[in-house]
Design goal:
Elements lengths: L18 H15 L11 H11 L9 H13 L3 E4 L3 E4 L15
Antiparallel strand pairs: 1-2
Helix pairs in contact: 1-3, 2-3
Length: 106
């Protein structure tokens, strides 16, 4: 019988970061570095999914367009990105400034 001691070796615990969170972190890093600037349009989800699969091929991480959408949706909720129906997803401008449609008028 195996006796459980309740002790876990620290090196055996590896935090697993969900793929959508990895994408969020990468998008935020690209914005912070200036690679993607306010007003820039992000590539479509399929293109981003392909880009991340190529980027992370050695890690064996598969990325679907749905995972990319989950990431960009999260960043839209946070105000980092702005989605425009039928147009695309854009990097938001100065987050201290109110977006044009904040008052419900366009």
């Amino acid at each position: 019988m195996i006796e459980l001691t309740g002790r876990v070796r620290k090196e055996s615990v590896v935090p697993v970061v969900p793929t959508y969170q990895r994408i969020i972190e990468d998008i935020l890093a690209r914005i912070a570095s200036g690679e993607w600037k306010p007003g820039d349009k992000l590539p479509p989800p399929r293109e981003l999914a392909d880009m991340y699969e190529r980027l992370w091929v050695n890690r064996g991480i598969e990325v679907s367009p749905q995972t990319v959408r989950r990431s960009t949706d999260t960043l839209q909720i946070r105000g980092v990105l702005i989605g425009r129906q039928g147009v695309g997803v854009f990097v938001a401008g100065d987050r201290s400034a109110k977006p044009e449609s904040a008052n419900g008028e366009d």
